[in-house]
Amino acid sequence: MEKTLVEIDKAAAVLKVLGDKTRLTIIGLIKDGECCVCEFVEVLQMSQPSVSQHLRKLRDTGLVKERRRGQWIFYSLNQEHDAFSIVESVLELIPDQMDKLKELENKGLRICCD
Amino acid sequence: MEKTLVEIDKAAAVLKVLGDKTRLTIIGLIKDGECCVCEFVEVLQMSQPSVSQHLRKLRDTGLVKERRRGQWIFYSLNQEHDAFSIVESVLELIPDQMDKLKELENKGLRICCD
DNA sequence: TGTGTATATAAGGATATACTTATATACTAA
DNA sequence: TTAGTATATAAGTATATCCTTATATACACA
């Protein structure tokens, strides 16, 4: 997988979007799979519009992909992103968020659509 | 070199500081050595207070170190930072800034203090 | 000591950010 | 079609950010 150089402006834009606790947690939550908006709302304990707005920033920079599945929209990491190597190194450094998804599952709130 | 986990808040703070074109350029300029404030001012074509304020953010998060040498203060990367791996992956991705230092040297504006 | 140079800090203003509440859109199922 | 659920967008507001100009601090040298 070739690594392309990324202009400073673009790299700065990516880092700025990643530089927020909420969005970083979202990235951590979809490290190994996808989540839908209502799952983020539950895990993050934030309002739905607020979560939507954070997801929009992630989507606008191309860091995440979305996939509609019935009434749900699932978000996942865009591993094709030019700056994905940054995302990877961030994910290696921050604590795993999987326990939060486990907790969701235990509460019966995990959305599964396969 | 052990890689420590970094809390989400701290990682977000680091990414936020890196998420600015000016500061990212500064990081690029000191990739392989140190620069003093007046060199940044010349390369970045920005006011001295503005540069100082950017350097302060980088210093406050611990991403750079400073070293006074006579009347000059030299800044360099803090390779001991918990999140240095992020800095490294960013530096691998963005274009080299060394040409700007070469240009400074050609204009006789490079400060050397050894 | 006084003057000049390098850097930092303070204060103020324009713009960006991250919430809020209200509303619109898209899909599902009766 | 209508009602309900999931998500997005709009508008407003408090706060943060990044610049500016003015001033303070630290050092060098005569």
TrEMBL record, chains A, B:
Protein's UniProt keywords contain Transcription regulation? yes
Q: Where is the HTH arsR-type domain?
A: 3-97
Which keywords label this protein? DNA-binding, Transcription, Transcription regulation
Q: Which Gene3D superfamilies match?
A: Winged helix-like DNA-binding domain superfamily/Winged helix DNA-binding domain
One function term, GO molecular function aspect = DNA-binding transcription factor activity
Q: Which InterPro entries match?
A: ArsR-like_HTH, HTH_ArsR_DNA-bd_dom, HTH_MetalResp_TranReg, WH-like_DNA-bd_sf, WH_DNA-bd_sf
PANTHER family listed in its UniProt record: ARSENICAL RESISTANCE OPERON REPRESSOR, TRANSCRIPTIONAL REGULATOR, ARSR FAMILY
Q: What is this protein called?
A: Winged helix-turn-helix transcriptional regulator
A Pfam family per the record: HTH_5
